[in-house]
Amino acid sequence: MSTPAGFDELIHPSTRLSVVALLAATEWADFAFVRDSLSLSDSALSKQLHTLEGAGYLEIQKEGGGRNRRTKVRLTDRGRTAFEGHVAALRAIVDSAGPETGPETGAATGAARRQPHAEAGR
Predict the structure, then answer these.
(1) Considering only 11-20, 51-60, 84-93, 109-118, which range has the smallest mean pLDDT?
(2) CB atoms < 10 A from the CB of 69, how many?
């Protein structure tokens, strides 16, 4: 299977995907909020943010100075488009893997078939 259109190697690593997914749900987010939400160290988050910023996927804004300095981040339009394309590509990969095994399909039927065997052993 070939890689679907929109799959983004830059976003795909789990930490970057988590950062971008979190930022996709908001306009701006404080560095500390992102760090704490994803349980990352300052240096690990900073590295990922700078990688994404270098690709034009997010904007970093620093406000204030000294101990009152705040760093805020947001997805750019380019970053939001890349994230949406990547999510669509991931869905295409999952959808091509075969039928779903949700309640409406085989999983419920399989569970129903197994149940009598469990009762028979009682």
Answers:
(1) 109-118
(2) 10
